[in-house]
Amino acid sequence: NSSFLRAPAGSGEAEDSLWELSEQVASRRRQQFQSLLSVLKVSDRSASESASSVVSASASSPSSSSSPPSSQLPSPAPESACPCPAPPSSYSTFLSLLESSDTNSLGCFSSHEAFLLPYEEAMTREYNGKFYDTSGHFLWVGDRTRQLDHAHIQFCQGIRNPIGVKVGPTAKPEEIVEICRTLNPDNIPGKVVLITRLGAARASRLLPPVIKATQAAGVRAVWLCDPMHGNTQVTPEGKKRRCFTDMLKEVLVTFDTHLQCQSHLGGVHLELTGEHVFECIEGSESHGGAGEETFEAFCDPRLNYTQALEMAFEFAQHIQSKSSQTEDLDRSARVGRDAN
């Protein structure tokens, strides 16, 4: 029941303006969604036509050593196409899922860091004897504000929202266990989300002790990987930069580490935008200093829509390559449960 999120009767002008602004933002997001969908359709059509042309050229060639006529070569994709590495079949499946969704009835879920406590307190409401922070559905505590004896953890301890906790390189395994117990004394699945942001070079070394500590303590938490913040660099000019290959590496290493520890990576935390920007280097559309010209973020560099899709498809392909290992792990787990 989400009635506590609805505007109360007789709202003032300020609240009315807030709701109007929310509608404007939602309308813009729907327009961006439709724009992205149209780009994906162009790319999918180009990929399918290219694949058909290659098959046709191969069939008509007299020998494998001879080159097909130029008229039979696949046409290059238009500049607006999204150069994602997924095969046409996977791409078509993805498009069908998007098209099957009613963008006018999609639920809007809000998430942000619970950083400014006066704001969060002002947005907190009591409902059926329990307190909810209505500024967002899912809130998280940052890596710099997750101290057990500080105000952010104490505030989040008192609300019923699911709470995320950023886990950076300085996090100690026993500290993370105590944070989970403080935020979730009843050990409810899904209440606490541990969001690791360790960096591509440190994830394989720092993550296993944290996973094993939570397993030994019986802590039930959802695991997410944030590959953005642990891979932020600062240029000599003082500008923040993120490398696409480093971020992708951390996602893949984190997934493999969970697999090795018989744990489960539940998701990925990305910062992205539908705008045509180049803020992260070494992605499918990032090259050289292009990010210098189109850096529009107020704070940290974001993935553009093409880079975000590329990362998603690369991750999906990695999961598929590990599917046999995952099946063996699941089979072993079932045997262990049956034995107990």
For this structure, what is the CATH homologous superfamily of the domain at 162-283 and 293-339? Aldolase class I
**Estimated structural class:** alpha/beta
- Major β-sheet, in short? 6 strands, parallel
Radius of gyration, rounded? 24 Å
User: How would you state the average pLDDT, rounded?
Assistant: 76
Secondary structure tally: strands: 11
Unreliable spans: 1-11, 53-91, 283-292
CATH architecture of the domain at 162-283 and 293-339: Alpha-Beta Barrel
Strand order of the largest sheet: 1-4-5-6-7-10
- Anisotropy-based shape: globular
End-to-end separation: 38 Å
Protein name: Phospho-2-dehydro-3-deoxyheptonate aldolase
Binding site for Mn(2+): 229, 271, 300
Binding site for phosphoenolpyruvate: 166, 197
Organism: Toxoplasma gondii FOU
Describe the 3D structure.
With 340 residues, the chain is of the alpha/beta class. It has a domain at 162-283 and 293-339: Alpha-Beta Barrel (TIM Barrel). 45% of the residues lie in helices and 12% in strands. The chain contains ten helices and eleven strands. It has a six-stranded parallel beta sheet, with helices on one face. Strand 4, helix 4 (151-157) and strand 5 (163-167) form a beta-alpha-beta unit. The model is unreliable at 1-11, 53-91 and 283-292 (pLDDT under 50). One of its GO terms (molecular function) is 3-deoxy-7-phosphoheptulonate synthase activity. Phosphoenolpyruvate binds at residues 166, 197.
